[in-house]
């Protein structure tokens, strides 16, 4: 075995490769965490297709503030979270 206090620069190439192989085996045995898959649509045209409406109507919905929490915009690129858009519009419909 190796002294854990040995600096990496003092290892031989063979020792370093052997350590890497051991770490790869240990990492491959770890169960991956479940990252929820998010449904996303891109742009006003993507929102229009989701809502089955025109681009102008989709822009009005976005500008109304009803779905402000459901999208992220950086410059001209805009990304909508589908599930959150639907939930927010359902909640808004129930308020009326």
From TrEMBL:
InterPro entries: DUF3853. It holds the Pfam family DUF3853. It comes from the Bacteria. This is DUF3853 family protein. It comes from Parabacteroides merdae.
């Amino acid at each position: 075995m190796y002294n854990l206090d040995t600096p990496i620069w003092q290892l031989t190439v063979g020792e370093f490769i052997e350590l890497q192989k051991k770490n790869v085996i240990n990492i491959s045995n770890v169960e991956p965490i479940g990252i929820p898959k998010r449904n996303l649509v891109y742009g006003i045209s993507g929102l229009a297709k989701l809502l089955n409406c025109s681009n102008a109507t989709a822009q009005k919905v976005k500008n109304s503030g009803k779905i402000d929490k459901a999208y992220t915009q950086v410059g001209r690129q805009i990304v909508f979270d589908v599930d959150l858009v639907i939930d927010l519009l359902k909640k808004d419909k129930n308020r009326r």
